[in-house]
Amino acid sequence: MQRTRNSMSSFARRPLALAATAVTGSLVLAACGAGGPSSGGGKISDDKVVLGLLNDQSGVYKDLSGPNSKVAIEMAVADYKAKYGDKAVAKNIEIVQADHQNKPDIANTKAQEMYDRQKADIILDVPTSSAALAVATQAKAKKKLFIDIGAGTTALTGKSCNKYTFHWAYDTYMLAQGTGATAVQNGGKNWSIVYPDYAFGQDMTKSFTNAVTKAGGTVQQSIATPFPNDNFSTFITKAESSKPNVIGIMAAGGDLINFVKQFNQAGLQGKTQLAVGLMFITDIHSLGVDQFQGTQFTDAWYWNFDDQNRAWADKFKAKTQTRPSFAHAGNYSAALQYLEAVQRAGTDNSDAVVKELEGKKLNDVFLRNGEVRAADHRVLHDAYLVKVKSKDQVKEEWDYEEVVSTIPAAEAFNPTVSTDCTM
Amino acid sequence: MSSQLVSKVDVDLPDAPSITAQRPYLRWVGMAVGLLVVLALPFFIYPPVAMDIAAWALFAISVDLLLGYTGLLSFGHAAFWGTSAYTTGLIAIHAGLPFPVAVLGGAVCAMILAVPTGYLAVRRTGIYFAMVTLAFAQMVYFIANQWRSVTGGENGLQGVPKNLGPLTDLINQDPFYFYYAALPLILIGVVIAWRTVNSPFGRVLVAIRDNPARARALGYDVERYKIMVFVISAGLAGLAGGVFSASHGFASLQELIWTTSGKVVLITVLGGIGTLWGGPVGAALVVLLEDRLASSGFNGIGIITGAIFVIIVLAFRHGIWGTARNGIGSWLRSRRRAREDA
To answer: Which pLDDT value is given to residue A38?
Structure first.
C-alpha cells in the first residue's frame, strides 16, 4: 500500500515539475539573442535609422502626446521620404515606442534599452521633467541624440544640458514669461501657486515666482501636491486661505483637469482668477471650453493659427480623428529636422548630426523663426499668448483658442544661457 | 503564535532525507551548473536585465533567510534594499569611490538601519512582525521623499557613476562588462547566505522557526538570534540594492515603496521558500516575464504575475524550486525501490 501511494504521488508530481521547468526554460530561450557585448556600425548604423518615442502611453499625459505622437512622427518620416525619394540617406526608418509611465526610473531603464537593444539613434518626446532628466543622462552616457518635446524643465538646458540633448518645444521660463507677467499687468498682484512636487512643478514655481515678482506682483504661498494626484480640495482651500487675486496651477494633463474641475466645484470660478501654467488643447477638449473660458495661457503652437498649421492639422485629423496638440506638432518637427540633419550629414553618426543641428535656423510647421541655440541646445521659436474662447465663439470642434499676441522667438525664451550649462 | 502559523502554512520539509544528503556529489554538481548558468546569462539575455535578475535573486535569498529559515515574514525589506540603493548612489556621486566600495557602504548602512528595526520587530511575531517592518519601511520612504536636497525626492537620485579604476570606461560603455564586474558582489552575498544556513547558527534558526518555545527551553536566546539573522538579511538585501542602483545609475523612490517589499516576497514564494535556490529561480521568472511583457507593449503585467502566483501557491505549494526538488527526489527514491524489489 505504502509503495503504491508513493509512486502515485511521484507520478502526479513529475509532470508538474516538468511543466515548471519548461516554463522557465522557454522564457530563457525567448529572451535569447539579446545578449552579448555590443558592436559598432557603419555610415548608417545597423542599416537603419531608428527613431524612439518614449512617453506616457497610459497615464495622465497620454492625451496631450502619447500614442498620437507616433502618428506625428510617421507623418514626418513620410514627408522626408516623399521629399528625397531615392536620394534619401536614411532608406530604412523604423519607429519604436515605449511607455515610461511618468516615472524617472522606468524612463531611465527604457531609454537605456532603446539605445542599446532597439538600436535607437534618437529618443523623442519624453514628457515629465524628472523622466526627461533621466533620459538626458542616458543620452550623454550613450552618446546618442535626445530631443525633448514634452517636458518643461529648464534644467535640460541648464544643469543637465549635454552635447546630445536638445530642448525643442517649450520650457517653464517661456510659460511664466507669457502667462505670469500678463496676469500681473492685468491686476493679478497677489498669487498662490499650487504645484506638483517633482522637477517640472518645482521648476515652474521658480520660473513663475521670478516672472510675477519681476512684473511687480507677489507670491504669497506655494503649495506642493503629490504627483500624480486625484484629490486637490485641501490644497485649493489652503491656496484660497491667503485671499489671493490669482491662483496659479502648475499641474498638467490629467492632474490639471482634476484640479480645474474641483476648483470650479468649490465655486471659485469667476471669484478668484485662475492662471494655468501649462495647458494643452487636449485639456480644454476633455473638460469643455466653459470650464476654462477666458483663461489666458502661453501656447507653443496652435493648430488653427494659420493655413499652414491648419493644413497639417487636417492631415493629422484624417489619421487620428483629433486635432493635434503642440506636443504632436513638436514631435513631427523634431523628427523631420532630425532626418533633415541626417540627410545633410550623410550619416546617422551622432556627432555629425549634432553638428548639423547646432546653430541652424529652422522653419517648419511648428518652428517659426526657429533657431537651435548652439550654447545650450535650447530651440528658440515664436510662442503665443492665447485666450480660451467662450462657448458661443467656438465655430467648430477643437476651435478653442484665440491668439492674443505672438511672442517673438527672441523674447519667448530666456535670452541668457544658464551658467550651469557646460556641454 | 502567529509566527508558527506562517511557518506551518508555508514551510514543510520533505518527508524523506533530501537527495543531496544521500548523494553529496550532487550538491557540487548542482552548484557548478548554477554558476555556469549565472556566468553565461548575459550572453543570452540583455545584460542589464541579467543584472536585474542577479540583484533580485540575492534580494529574494535575503528574504528567504528570514521567511524560510526563521519563519519571519518581513514586509519592509524594501527599506534595506532602497537605503542601500540611495547610500550607494550618494557615496558614488559625492566621494567618487569605486562602485564595489559604494555598494559595500550601502550594505553596511542597511545593516545599521536593521539594528533598531530588528530590535523592535522581533519582539512581535507573525502579522505584527510584518506590520512593524512595513511601518519602518514606510518611514524610510517618507524620509527619502521629503529629504529632497539629498535624495532628489520624486526625481530620484540621478546619474550614479560606475567607477572602477582603469576599467571605468569599459563597464560604463557596455553593461555586458558591468555584469561581470558586479557579479562577485552578488556571489559573495549568496555564499554568506549559504554559510549562514548551513551552520550551527542556521540549525538554531530552523529550530526557532519550528518551535520557538522549545528553542528557548534549550537555552537559546531566541530574540538575539532573530535580530542577528535580521541584520544579516538586511545586509544581503543592501548588497543587492546597491548593485541594482549602480547598474541602473539611478536610485528612485520605487526602490523604497512597499510594492517592492511585496514583489520580493512574491518572488521568494514563487521560487520556493526555505530552499535558498528558489529565490534565483523566482527572480529569473518574474524579471524575465516583466521584461518580455513590457517590451511587447502589454500593460497588465500584474495580472499575469498575479495569476502565476495563485497557480503556484495552489498547485505547487513548495514553489517552483521546492516542487522540482521534491519531484526529482521522490522519482529517484521510487526508482531505487523498484531496483531493490527487482
So the answer is: 58
CATH architecture for the domain at A45-170+303-382: 3-Layer(aba) Sandwich (3.40)
Phi, psi of A406 (to 5 degrees): -95, 130
Per-residue pLDDT of B99-116, as tens digits, reads: 999 999 999 999 999 999
Overall number of domains in chain B? 1
Distance CA B185, CA B183 (A): 5
Contact B172 A38 (CB under 8 A): no
- Quote the minimal CA–CA distance from B164 to chain A in Å: 16
- pLDDT tens profile A109-150: 899 989 988 899 999 999 988 899 999 999 998 899 999 999
CATH number of the domain bearing residue B246:
1.10.3470
pTM: 0.80
pLDDT value at position A220? 94
Contact residues for B46 (Cβ-Cβ < 8 A; gap 6+):
A31, A34, A35, A113, A116, A117, B291
Helical axes B99-121 vs B175-197, angle rounded to 10°:
40
> Which among A9, A36, A112 has the least Cβ separation from residue B43?
A36
Contact B158 A116 (CB under 8 A): no
Q: Which of A14, A34, A105 sits opposite B46 (nearest CB)?
A: A34
Q: Of the candidates B175, B284, B330, which has its C-beta nearest A10's C-beta?
A: B330
- Return the ∠ at Cα A98 (arms to A96 and A103), rounded to 5°: 150
- Asked whether this chain's domains A45-170+303-382 and A173-277 adopt the same fold, the reply is yes
Contacts of B53 in chain A (CB under 8 A): none
- A231/B contact by beta carbon, under 8 A: no
| A335-364 pLDDT, tens digit each | 999 999 999 999 999 999 999 999 999 999
What is residue B180's predicted lDDT score, i.e. its pLDDT?
Answer: 93
| Predicted local distance difference test score (pLDDT) of residue B18 | 57
CB atoms near residue A306 (< 10 Å): 12
ipTM: 0.73
- Angstrom distance (rounded) from CA B233 to CA B58: 10
Q: Which among B249, B327, B337 is the nearest to A13, CB-wise?
A: B327
Owning domain of residue B109 = 2-341
CA distance B340 to B342: 6
Q: Is the pLDDT of residue B230 over 70?
A: yes
Task: Write out chain A residues lying below 8 Å of B289, CB-based.
Answer: 27
Residues of B in contact with A112 (CB under 8 A): 48, 175, 248
The domain at A173-277 falls in which architecture? 3-Layer(aba) Sandwich (3.40)
